[in-house]
Specification:
- This protein is an alpha+beta fold.
- The chain has a single domain (about 10-235), classed as Sandwich (Jelly Rolls).
- It has six helices and eleven strands.
- The chain has helices spanning about 15-25, 40-55, 80-90, 95-100, 100-110, 145; strands at about 30, 120-125, 140, 150-160, 170-175, 185, 190-195, 200-205, 210-215, 220-225, 230-235.
- Strands 1-9-4-11-2 form a five-stranded antiparallel beta sheet. The protein has a four-stranded antiparallel beta sheet with strand order 3-10-5-8. Strands 6-7 form a two-stranded antiparallel ribbon.
- A hairpin with a 6-residue loop joins strand 6 and strand 7.
- The longest helix has 17 residues, at about 40-55.
Length: about 240
């Protein structure tokens, strides 16, 4: 399969809230580099990897900070053996503080010219890599199906570098303007995949620490396996 085109980089518009808003309305996403302090991300990553290692999720012959999965421990939501480890990760206080970091709140407040509210629905994806016997790849979907409500936006935040070939986030630019698309039961994370041809143009880039992707909850997205990331949702006007 041919690689998708790169995300349109909006980092240069950070000081122009009106331009950011216009691009978000047009494309349904914003790709921004170097938004969050690196140390804040690395601190959370270290804490979560330490907990994952204690739960047997990481390769015992590799350094914990390398984040190499233990394929013999592969499991998925909502299996009991997955939830026993995952709950400890999801409950991490520093992780939840990161998703409401002042620079994130400020970004959305400026874009919409009104205070941003962090939605209590917070999704953290920890998915074992795909193998011949394990596949929990996230299919193409719309977050709005899960969140409901009025206009909302999600901020995709990788907690480690992830090249395209290992499962970086992809979005169908412009697809948010087509409303809620027909869905079907999926076999991957989320369990609700888009069941019809997806409008828009699929784009992505390698996920790197400190990059974020703000997306409309109505845009089509898909993800592969292999990233340590956080995905909070942000309802806001606009």
């Amino acid at each position: 399969m041919q690689p998708y085109p790169d995300f349109l980089d909006s980092t240069g518009l950070l000081d122009d809230a009106r331009a950011l808003h216009a691009r978000l309305v047009r494309d349904g996403y914003l790709f921004i580099r170097d938004l969050l302090p690196a140390q804040a991300i690395f601190s959370v990553r270290e804490r979560l990897l330490t907990k994952a290692a204690a739960g047997g999720w990481l390769d015992p012959d590799s350094a914990v900070q390398a984040g190499v999965a233990n394929p013999t421990a592969a499991c998925k939501d909502p299996e009991d053996r997955y939830m026993r480890v995952f709950r400890g990760l999801w409950m991490d206080e520093q992780l939840h503080r990161l998703r409401v970091h002042p620079v994130v709140i400020d970004l959305f407040t400026r874009i919409f010219s009104e205070p941003a509210l962090a939605h209590p629905m917070f999704v953290q994806r920890n998915i074992f890599p795909q193998t011949g016997s394990f596949d929990f790849t996230t299919g193409a979907h719309q977050d709005r199906v899960h969140i409901g409500g009025a206009t909302s936006y999600a901020l995709w935040m990788p907690l480690g570098d992830c090249p395209r070939e290992k499962g970086a986030l992809a979005v169908a630019a412009g697809s948010h303007s087509q409303g809620i698309l027909e869905t079907k039961v999926g076999s991957g994370a989320g369990g609700m995949d888009i069941a019809v041809p997806i409008p828009g143009t699929w784009v992505n880039s390698s996920d790197l620490v400190r990059t974020v992707v703000a997306v409309s909850a109505g845009i089509g997205t898909r993800r592969g396996n292999g990233t340590w990331c956080a995905d909070p949702s942000w309802p806001a006007g606009g």
